[in-house]
Here is the input.
Amino acid sequence: MLGLVMEGGAMRGMFTAGVTDVLMEANVTVDGAIGTSAGAVFGCNVKSGQIGRVIRYNKRFCADQRYAGLRNLLLTGDLFGAAFCYEDIPDRLDPFDRTAFAANPMAFYAVCTDVSTGQAVYHRCRDGGREDMLWLRASASMPLAARPVEVAGYRLLDGGIADSIPLQAFQAMGYDRCIVILTQPKGFVKQPNRLMPVLRLALRRYPELLDALRHRHLRYNQTLDFIRAQERLGACLVLQPPRALIVGAVERNPNTLQAVYELGREVALKQLEAVKAFARHAKEGGTP
Here is the structure.
């Protein structure tokens, strides 16, 4: 089966949105998609088929304090306004097409981290309804910037803590050929988290989560090595930015968001024929 794997990275996700919009415009379809953090909250628009929605609402609301801001964090414990981002925008301000999402046979998974175990949880989103929105919110709930999200008996935070680029997990589900969208350039090496002293204090109730955070950079770099090995074997095709993306985790400038989005489009258009060939061979059961 052909899969689509989407890394997170906060507003680096505008790069992913540019790539996926080009793929949708070119009618490149996959059997399943999986996203972590921004890869989940932006990538879900692939299943609903909403070309342009991600860049549109982010540009519209990036400077809106209801979307993200210190006031939200101080009043609610969430930097990104939970009700505004996961109710007001998808319900009214820039509607998420739940009907199309549910009707599309493509499977879609969001990756979260269980704060009690420090392990990844992979949830299949089926209808884009209230519970799915909680899973998406949990996937993008960064430590220190969000409260744990309670859903289906779990307490969850950012999926990137446990599985930033879930290629191995998706392969284990049967997606043996995957298009992988990264939001860091080739040669990137993740460093230890400089905020560990603060995290140890803030998350002292969750020792397993702290352990996952402490070793996150090691797992991330090992995953990159695994991806390159899979790429050499023809099991995955990687699309990633040619250079580091200069964009804030909370970006107020819509022009910056547009520039990152356009870079994603540029990369996807340059590799479009290779992507089409990869997808065709994957669906035929062969290798590129």
In short: The mean pLDDT is 96. Residues 1 and 285 are 8 Å apart (CA to CA).
